Structures are given as structure tokens and as C-alpha cells.
């Protein structure tokens, strides 16, 4: 462990201790309620923290001044009782998405009280399926993308309005996905506005259109993270993607992204067809200089339903996740998985690393002390409907891009109200209501199971995730009871 890693681990543990104390203290929660009060679209706490981070004088009301005093007391106690310095606090608060994420966490605690895992007041992350158009035709596409945008997609003007609404709600990070977002001319303009609104801007692309110029344009618009999909070695990737030559173009796209200085993640959707190539793609990811390898847990949604028979068995998934955990310990880059069971495996104590949630590559810390375990339970594995949601090309709001249940539309409904009041999302959040597998599991708070998988197989988000080894009877009985062929047909409908 390097000195920086060691001090980062210490800071995480210190911060976990403080949050744990806060959660148990009713006076602190009352103060949080006061400091996180919103007036219209203005979030008092965000204003105060921003002015503190940049040493700026702003016009403050009496209530703001009181909040400022409370915030300064809290910062003082964090600095006194932990290894975190005032400079650390200020430099993190200067990052817009970090500050917004903190505010949303505190607002979430004030809103719902002490909960493990917690729910943020506004989504930390929105994955925005920007268009249904794509230049490829991938077998597992959750969006069932076609060659052209569909007629109901948001216009540029509507996209800008949607952005204003998400920024006002307090969203910290937006990841533009697809279809293929680089197909759309307005992606840079929209990306620039995301960054101007102090939110993090990431993009998920198939990489085939990511020339040096495009990578530079992304960087200039404020993009801080590029996720590029690579589903195997040349032959496998080209077959998956339905386009001969896709592999070479994608690898060049990864090179262009890395050489432009963009933080780059290589993501691989793993099925029975490419399971034996995972090691090769991790090697290639490291060789290309990307910062993260991400295993995408295949979920049979969209066109993925057509290849449901390629889904991994619970045993295959368990073996894969353990392999990834070993790789994570060995490599100088992040090795992560979108399968929430990865947090359970990392919490087992068998590995030196831990992973708190699948969409945050920064949150890998060495060791799993009590405080880190508390943090893992607080952050909580599956973030669908709790820390994150999806937005469709036509403005439909969904709890996760792999779970296409429409809960509202950003053109007609209040985004924050949909997030806070949706009963469907509440069913996802309340893990005590899950059935006996995930509901009674010791890792319920750390993992929670993939709700999109439960929905894809049972049409019910409170059923246990049949992809987990702990629930393997569920997987077997699905097939036993219905029969393999009918089972596949049933799930496709
Ligand atoms: S039983 Fe459910 S909560 Fe427990 S580890 Fe498996 S998927 Fe996660
Ligand atoms: S439902 Fe949860 S675990 Fe599954 S893909 Fe969505 S966020 Fe990830």
C-alpha cells in the first residue's frame, strides 16, 4: 500500500466513523434538517459550501448565516477528530459533483432518517440514454437501438430544459449513453452545459466514432470520464457487435481517449460466449492505459432477451466475481463489476480490496475494517432508484437503464417529485420487503441483489436476484418448474 493509499484509507475510515455518529444523534439530524432546507430551487447548503470552498463572499440571509456557523463547526470537528485537513475539505468541495453529492447525502439523511443503505435526496447519477440511434447492432443492447433516432426523442431545446431540471433537483453526475451518443450532433453542447451546471459529465460509447478530434472535443466540453465497451477479442467482439472491423475501431477509440488525457474505462458485458476472454480483455485494458476495467453484468432486457440462454449461471458468476476480486488486488488499475454481489465478495475478508458500489471506481479501499464495512452498508450495492436513475431518449424516467419501468416523463412531470414519491422506487429501496433470499441475507445492505435482474426474470423488483449463488435454488426452480424452453419464452414476453 502506498502512503497516499494508506492515508486515503484512513480518511475513509475516519469519515465513516463520523457519519455513523451523526446517524445515531437526533440533535445532529435536527440541525441537518435546518441546514439542508431548500428555498425554491436554491439549496442553502450548496451555496454555503461553495462560498467556503472558494473563499467567496456572497449575500447571506440570517438563516444562511446560521447555517454557515453550523457548517463551520462541523468542518472544524471533522478536521480536529480525523486525519482530514481543511485543505482536503476545501479542495474536494471545489469539485462541483463532489459537493453536490455530499449535499444530496446530507439532505437524504435529513429526509429519511438513519437508514442503511441510504437514499440520496436527488439521484447522484443519471444515466441518460441520449438516443435510440446507433451505428452498430449489438446482440445484448438493452435499448434495442436502431439505425435512426426515433421520432419522439427530445429536441435540443427540450434536452437543455431537462438539464436545468436535473441541475435544480441537485443531480451530481450525468452519464450520457445510448444508442451511440456520438451519433448526435448536440452531444458536445449538452455536455458543456452539464459541466457549466457544476455536474460531472461522463459518456458511454462503443468507441468506433471516437477519433482524436472527437476525444479532444469531449475534453474541451468538460467531459471527465469515458466508458468504452469491448466485449471480447477481435472475432468475438465483431460478432457481438454485428460489424466486422468494430474491434479495431473500438481499440483505436480507447487509445484516442487515453492519449487525450481522459479517464477511460473499458467495459465488458460478460455472457457464456465471452466468459473465457475476460482475462485477455483485462490485460488489454491495462496495456492500453485505461484506468478501469468494468464487468457489466448481463441483464436480459431489450435485445438482451433474445440471448437470455447466454446468461451466466450463479456458479459461473460467482467464479467470475472471485476472479475479478483477485485481479483487483493484483493490478495497478481498478477492476470492478456492476454485479452488486461483487460488494459481498469484497466484504468477505478474503481480498485486500473492497468495492462500495459499482459506479464509483474511486471507492476501492484496501482492507475491510469495521468502518469500511459500515460505509459499504451505508452506500449499499445496487443503487437503482436509490442513488441513481435512468432517463430515456424521449424523457421517460426509469429506475435503472436495465429496468425499463416508466415512472414519469421529464417533459410533463416534476423530476424530483418522481424520484422522491415513486412507489415503485420505494419498493426497490425497502430491502426488508424483499422475499426470503435477498430479504433475509446477511449482505442485504451491502449488496441488495440486482433489482433489474429480478424484474427481468419475475416482473417483480422485490423477488430475490436469481443470479446470486445464495439464491441458486431460485435459478434451478425457474428452469425445473417451467422447463428451459418455455422459461426462455416466458421471459421474452
Ligand atoms: S442473496 Fe441477495 S443480497 Fe444476498 S448476496 Fe445474494 S444477491 Fe446479494
Ligand atoms: S438494478 Fe441495481 S444492480 Fe442492477 S443494473 Fe441497475 S443499479 Fe445495477
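-> sequence recovered:
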Amino acid at each position: 500500500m502506498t502512503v497516499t493509499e494508506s492515508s486515503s484509507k484512513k480518511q475513509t475510515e475516519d469519515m465513516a466513523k463520523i457519519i455513523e455518529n451523526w446517524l445515531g444523534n437526533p440533535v445532529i439530524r435536527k440541525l441537518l434538517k435546518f441546514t439542508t432546507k431548500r428555498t425554491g430551487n436554491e439549496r442553502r447548503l450548496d451555496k454555503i459550501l461553495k462560498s467556503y470552498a472558494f473563499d467567496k463572499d456572497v449575500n447571506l440571509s440570517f438563516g444562511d448565516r446560521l447555517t454557515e456557523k453550523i457548517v463551520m463547526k462541523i468542518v472544524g470537528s471533522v478536521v480536529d477528530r480525523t486525519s482530514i485537513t481543511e485543505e482536503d475539505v476545501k479542495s474536494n468541495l471545489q469539485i462541483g459533483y463532489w459537493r453536490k453529492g455530499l449535499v444530496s447525502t446530507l439532505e437524504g439523511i435529513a429526509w429519511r432518517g438513519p437508514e442503511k443503505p441510504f437514499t440520496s435526496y436527488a439521484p447522484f447519477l443519471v444515466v441518460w440514454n441520449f438516443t435510440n440511434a446507433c451505428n452498430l447492432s449489438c446482440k445484448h443492447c438493452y435499448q434495442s437501438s436502431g439505425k435512426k433516432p426515433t421520432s419522439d426523442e427530445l429536441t435540443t431545446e427540450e434536452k437543455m430544459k431537462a438539464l436545468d431540471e436535473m441541475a435544480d433537483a441537485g443531480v451530481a453526475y450525468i452519464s450520457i449513453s445510448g444508442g451511440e451518443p456520438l451519433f448526435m450532433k448536440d452531444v458536445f453542447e449538452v455536455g458543456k452545459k452539464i459541466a457549466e451546471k457544476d455536474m460531472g459529465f461522463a459518456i458511454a460509447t462503443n468507441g468506433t466514432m471516437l477519433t482524436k478530434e472527437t476525444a479532444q472535443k469531449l475534453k474541451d466540453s468538460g467531459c471527465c470520464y469515458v466508458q468504452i465497451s469491448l466485449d471480447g477479442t477481435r472475432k468475438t467482439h465483431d460478432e457481438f457487435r454485428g460489424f466486422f472491423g468494430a474491434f479495431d475501431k473500438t481499440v483505436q477509440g480507447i487509445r484516442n481517449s487515453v492519449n487525450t488525457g481522459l479517464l477511460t474505462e473499458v467495459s465488458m458485458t460478460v455472457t457464456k460466449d465471452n466468459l473465457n476472454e475476460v482475462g485477455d480483455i483485462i490485460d488489454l485494458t491495462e496495456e492500453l492505459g485505461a484506468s478501469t476495467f468494468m464487468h457489466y453484468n448481463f441483464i436480459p432486457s431489450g435485445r438482451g432477451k433474445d440471448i437470455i440462454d447466454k446468461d451466466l449461471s450463479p456458479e459461473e458468476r460467482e467464479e467470475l466475481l472471485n476472479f475479478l476480486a483477485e485481479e483487483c488486488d493484483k493490478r495497478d488499475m481498478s477492476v470492478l463489476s456492476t454485479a452488486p454481489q461483487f460488494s459481498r465478495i469484497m466484504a468477505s475478508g478474503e481480498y485486500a480490496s473492497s468495492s462500495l458500489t459499482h459506479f464509483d471506481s474511486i471507492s476501492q479501499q484496501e482492507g475491510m475494517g469495521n468502518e469500511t464495512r459500515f460505509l459499504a452498508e451505508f452506500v449499499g450495492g445496487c443503487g437503482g432508484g436509490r442513488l441513481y436513475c435512468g432517463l430515456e431518449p424521449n424523457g421517460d424516467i426509469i429506475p435503472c437503464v436495465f429496468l425499463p419501468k416508466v415512472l414519469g416523463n421529464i417533459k410533463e412531470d416534476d423530476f424530483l417529485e418522481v424520484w422522491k414519491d415513486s412507489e415503485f422506487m420505494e419498493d426497490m429501496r425497502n430491502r426488508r420487503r424483499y422475499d426470503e433470499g435477498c430479504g433475509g441475507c446477511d449482505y442485504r445492505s451491502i449488496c441488495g441483489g440486482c433489482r433489474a435482474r429480478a424484474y427481468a426474470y419475475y416482473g417483480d423488483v422485490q423477488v430475490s436476484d436469481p443470479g446470486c449463488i445464495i439464491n441458486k435454488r431460485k435459478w434451478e426452480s425457474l428452469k425445473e418448474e417451467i422447463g428451459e424452453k418455455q422459461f426462455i419464452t416466458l421471459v421474452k414476453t
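The longest strand covers residues 264-270.
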